[in-house]
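Justification of resources, computational component.

The compute hours requested in this renewal are based largely on the per-chain cost of generating structure records like the one below. Each record pairs the submitted sequence with a full structure-token output. That output is archived, and it is also reused by downstream analysis tasks.
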Amino acid sequence: MALNEVAGTVIIGIGVLFDVFGCIGLLRLPDVYNRLQAGTKCVTFGTCGILLGIFMMYGFSGAGLKALAGIPFLLVASPAAAHAIGRGAYRFGVKLWKKSVIDLYQKDQDKTD
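The structure output for this chain reads:
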């Protein structure tokens, strides 16, 4: 195996681990807001790692360039979607977890009223 294949495989493995940790967070965390944190951070970076590993393995071929082009899209779209879901959940009235310490969004809404 060539060096770029080994490096690509290692980076893909790290990306898969991030995705697994994000999925575990989706299952174990108590409310929608905490779950969005796990889903946004871990799964975004994990999937970007997988795409980067694919690019390292395939280089500047069709598959490698498509994987490389997907990274910026994912880095923009995933946090924006999570923000929209979180804001929609808050406005719809989904309660925070009972042990949540602070509600900064409520403070921002109080300033605009």
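The two ends are 62 Å apart (CA to CA). Residues 21 and 42 are 7 Å apart (CA to CA).
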